Amino acid sequence: MNNRSLCKPWEHRLSRRQLLGTAATGGAAMGLGALGGMLEPAIADELKKQEKQVIFIWMDGGISQLESWDPKPNTQFGGPFRPIPTSVPGVQFCELLQHTAKHMDKLSLVRSVRTQDNSHSAGVGRINRGDPKDRGVVYPYLGSAVSKLMGSTSSGLPPYVWVKPYSGGFKSFDAGFLGAKYGALALGDGQPPDNLLRHESISKEDDLARNELRLKFNRRYSERRRKEFTDANSYVYDVAHTLMERMDLFDESKVPKRDVERYGTHDLGRHMLLGRRLIEAGVRFVKVNSYHWDSHGDNFNASDSLVRQFDQPFAALIEDLDERGMLDNVLVIAMSEFGRTPKINSHVGRDHWPEAWSVCMAGANLHKGLVVGKTNNDGTFVDSEPYDIGHLFHTWFKALEVPEEKMEYVNNGQPLPVANEDCHAIKEILSVG
User: Fold this and answer.
1) Residue 55's closest CA among 348, 373, 377, 271?
2) What residues pair up with 85 in beta bridges, in sequence order?
3) What range does the domain containing 259 cover?
């Protein structure tokens, strides 16, 4: 095997940008009450009626479609795992998805994804940005795009929250040309940002007076500076204040024991459970990250561990959203930057493969129990109409009912499409016109 096909360590280093600020500003946040099992009825009804949300499960490195959504049993590339039936007759998953298979009747699956980049450095950015044509600007990631196009929900909570292992803070990188305001508030290891709470030596009255002074300084400072930078700085303070009012979200002692058991005590289970609670609280877009899916070596043991860790909480998430009546308005997406090669390499691994892979979805305005597209018998190439990431972006925005008049950015007077304009929404998966 040519070692150049293996990833380099630098491709997996994580950004450690620091939080821009965490002091509180004046004003009251909307209280939503304890979350535990059910939402306050009025909030739940409002979210059910109109407010579209997204929970985006990102498996960094590339989940193998053959060990998950598109098994190829009894073929030269099929691997050791068996296919199992799902709740939709004729649709099979890999046996590692035994819990999720029971909920295929609520899922929408695209098995004919074909993209271009087979490296993490190029693929991650292109997939997360919807493959726009080169316009001389850095496009936003999906979470930032949704934050810009749809804003916060009526909860007043941050529109884009990223639950991830390792470091947290305010990540402006995702926002691209939209500006730092539309970055992600990252909860490192699912924890609130450092120094979020007011120090016990500072009274509430002193804190309010201090922030009044800060606001005056900000107004003076912003008079001669670009609005997008000063707005971003003030926005982070506003976000911090909102979270100060909702510290119950981070109190795991309030989570029912049954939920902890159903989602699992491993990182991905804990983080997906927090993601569900953030969606229930009213966050517009929640991204949940999982790393270490890059199985160039020992793919089958890696998949046996990782896919099972994903399967249990993902099935619980779909079940919970459905039981709460929220699945019709919450778009669920589970994907990576590409799939894995059907051919097994000399390290008993699978390499990067953007030519034919799968994306799993559920929820808002998507048909349930539907599989779109197929790969050939060996799983090497798409054997139906292929769909690139631009098609998926257009599909997601359509599912979220983003108005047509908002389906365009304006950057310094320059109109820009929200994703590759040569692509279109996948009509057969949508339940809206």
Assistant:
1) 271
2) 92
3) 53-193+250-429
